[in-house]
């Protein structure tokens, strides 16, 4: 099983990040956390890396259903979505959402399958929408 629902975009990092946030919102996800790995690693370790942001995305109704089925599932929430510059191609930004099917695999809780399927469909729709042309205003 793949751990990610991936795509890549030929755009700037700032545009990819903004479009990813918008795509998540349009599919019922709020961004609860944001970790700027580039800034954090530079500040804490003095290390340089490409643009890399982790968004902690949550769909409250689906998170509630999952936590109701398995209280420990909170250890795996929110769903992480990574927006990162491709270190091998400066014109490409990679967007990867955590594969929600991992929730079922990690916990072994078959009752989570329906929730994971719904989260997968919504995250995949968000990822797929990143390839839709955005009208210029």
Automatic annotation (TrEMBL):
Residue ranges occupied by any DUF302 domain in the UniProt entry: 35-100
Name recorded for this polypeptide: DUF302 domain-containing protein
InterPro entries for this protein: DUF302, TT1751-like_sf, UCP021774
Pfam families documented for this protein: DUF302
Source species taxonomy: Bacteria, Bacillati, Actinomycetota, Actinomycetes, Mycobacteriales
